[in-house]
């Protein structure tokens, strides 16, 4: 830690120089963290979670283990940042393909197929996530990632289903059940593709989207009844 008191004779120019260097330092540190995260993804995918030590990750990144310790409190924090970054990248990829003007039915299909499209070009990330989800544990031995940690995702999917019900595109159903089922379907799609890499992931995603379109859409009678209720109001 540096003292809060400025060294004699450097209270002005010295401070200004350091402040001017802050953006550059921040950029360099961000780039270094990204480098370490990428190395962690590659190491976990290649060696498995248990064998992906900080030393192995540092070697892959071409840095010392101490550099990793400077940027991350330990392997646990690094792994959490890996998961966060991958999910952020998936989210950005999917959002770029979603049309905000489209209805819930279109959103549902684009969401499923876009996630598959992203992973089709990022098999290493998928392999690393599989290792992390299977083997990463909390201090008490419980899985770090699972149903409990998926709550924000379930809530986001519920919002889409509710909007589809309000618009009349979707039938009445329990949105929590549908959200959990959809995410489980996507997770198992990737698990199957990991076990059978020759399987057509694009075709699988297209079929899965069709299943949930049929499972959610309102039938003709329900749409008519909703229209009549709206007209009466």
Poorly predicted tracts of residues: 1-11
What about the largest sheet? Answer: none
Order of helices and strands: HHHHHHHHHH
Cα-based radius of gyration, to the nearest Å: 24 Å
Domains (count): 2
| Number of E-state strands | 0
Q: How many helix segments? A: 10
CATH fold-level topology of the largest domain: Tetracycline Repressor, domain 2
**What is the arithmetic mean of pLDDT?**
87
What characteristic shape results from the CA principal axes?
Answer: elongated
* CATH architectural arrangement of the largest domain: Orthogonal Bundle
Kindly estimate the percentage of residues that lie in beta strands according to DSSP: under 5%
**CA-to-CA gap between the ends?**
67 Å
Structural class: mainly alpha
What helical percentage do the residues reach?
over 70%
Main CATH class of the largest domain: Mainly Alpha
Would you give an account of this structure?
With about 230 residues, this protein is mainly α. The protein folds into 2 domains: about 55 residues, Homeodomain-like (Arc Repressor Mutant, subunit A, Orthogonal Bundle); about 150 residues, Tetracycline Repressor, domain 2, CATH 1.10.357.10. It is about 70% helix and about 0% strand. Helix 1 packs across helix 6, helix 4 packs across helix 5 and helix 5 runs antiparallel to helix 7. The longest helix has about 35 residues. The radius of gyration is 24 Å and the shape is elongated. The N terminus is likely disordered.
